[in-house]
Write a structure and sequence with these properties.
Layout (H helix, E strand, L loop, with lengths): L2 H6 L9 E5 L3 H7 L4 H22 L3 E8 L7 H24 L2 E6 L7 H14 L6 E9 L1 H17 L10 H6 L11 E4 L18 E4 L9 H12 L9 H5 L1
Bound molecules: 3-methylbut-3-enyl trihydrogen diphosphate (2 copies) and magnesium ion.
One 3-methylbut-3-enyl trihydrogen diphosphate (IPE) binds next to strand 2.
C-alpha cells in the first residue's frame, strides 16, 4: 500500500492512471491583486511543483499540463516573451528535482516554434530525465493545439499512403493514436480545468473521448493539494461505462 494514499484516504486501485489539467486563471489571480499577469504565471509555476510532487507521491503515472496553447501566441508580445522566459527558468530550476524524484519530462506541441535556446533546454531535460527507469511522466503541452496535432498526424499518414507504405484501408484508430504527440501514453482518465471556465480550448480532443471531467472555480495558483485530492476522490466515486449499461459494468 502506498503510504500517501493512506494519508490522503485514497483507494489506490481507483486512482486515475493519467490526469490532464488545463491550468487556467493565472492572469485573473494577478489582476485581483493589481499585479502584472506574469506574477500570476510565476505563482502558477509553484502550483505545478505542488501538484507534480503530489502525483508522484500518490502514484499517478501520467500528469499532462496545458501550459501554452497554439492560440496563446496571439497574446501581447510582453506576455509571450515573459512566459518563454518562465519556461526556461522552470526547466533549469526543476531538472534536478525531476531526476531526484524519478520523473520523466515529456513535451507535446509544436517544438519548432521555440527559440533554439529553449529547445535545447527542453531536449536536454527530456534526455536527462528518461535515463533512470522513471516512475512517472510529466508532460507539458507547450505551443500545443489539438487541431494542429491532428493535422500533422493526418499529414504523416497521408505521406505513408503516398509512399505506398500503407493502404487507406489499413488506417485505423490505433494508427491515428500512434501518429499523435501522445503516442506513448494512455488517454487521460481525468481532465481538470480550473478558474470556472467550462471549455476544452483545443486540448487533447481525440484523447479525451472517454475522460471524466472535473471543473472548479479555483484559480490555478490557488489550486492546492487538498483540491487535487478532492478531484481524485470525486473521480474514484464515478462509474465509467464506456457505452455499456451499469449492470454490465458491475459484473
Ligand atoms: C493560464 O492562465 C495560463 C496560460 C494560458 C498561459 P491565463 O493566463 O489564461 O489566466 P486568465 O484566464 O487570463 O485568468
Ligand atoms: C487554455 O487557457 C490554455 C492553457 C491553459 C495553457 P486559455 O486561457 O488560453 O483558454 P481560453 O482562450 O480562455 O479558452
Ligand atoms: Mg485563461
Amino acid at each position: 500500500m502506498n503510504e500517501y494514499c493512506i494519508k490522503y484516504g485514497l483507494a489506490e486501485e481507483r486512482l486515475p492512471q493519467h490526469v490532464a489539467i488545463i491550468m487556467d486563471g493565472n492572469g485573473r489571480w494577478a489582476k485581483k491583486r493589481l499585479w502584472n499577469r506574469l506574477v500570476g504565471h510565476r505563482a502558477g509555476a509553484d502550483a505545478v511543483d505542488t501538484i507534480t510532487t503530489l502525483c508522484r507521491e500518490i502514484g499517478i503515472k501520467y500528469l499532462t499540463l496545458y501550459a501554452f496553447s497554439t492560440e496563446n501566441w496571439n497574446r501581447p508580445e510582453s506576455e509571450v516573451t515573459g512566459l518563454m522566459e518562465l519556461f526556461k527558468e522552470f526547466l533549469v530550476a526543476k531538472k534536478h528535482l525531476l531526476i531526484e524524484k524519478n520523473i520523466r519530462l515529456n513535451i507535446i506541441g509544436e517544438k519548432n516554434k521555440f527559440s533554439p535556446e529553449l529547445l535545447k533546454l527542453m531536449n536536454d531535460t527530456i534526455a536527462e530525465t528518461e535515463k533512470y527507469d522513471p516512475q512517472m511522466t510529466l508532460t507539458l503541452a507547450l505551443s500545443y493545439g489539438s487541431r494542429q496535432e491532428i493535422t500533422q498526424a493526418v499529414r504523416k499518414i497521408a505521406q505513408k499512403v503516398a509512399a505506398h507504405e500503407i493502404t487507406p484501408e489499413s488506417i485505423d484508430e490505433k494508427l491515428i493514436s500512434e501518429s499523435l504527440y501522445t503516442f506513448n501514453m494512455p488517454d487521460p482518465d481525468l481532465v481538470i480545468r480550473t478558474s470556472g471556465e467550462y471549455r476544452i480550448s483545443n486540448y487533447l480532443l481525440w484523447q479525451i473521448a472517454y475522460s471524466e471531467f472535473y471543473f472548479t472555480d479555483t484559480l490555478w495558483p490557488d489550486f492546492k493539494k487538498d483540491e487535487f485530492i478532492k478531484a481524485v476522490k470525486d473521480y474514484a466515486g464515478r462509474e465509467r461505462r464506456f457505452g455499456k449499461t451499469g449492470d454490465q459494468v458491475k459484473k
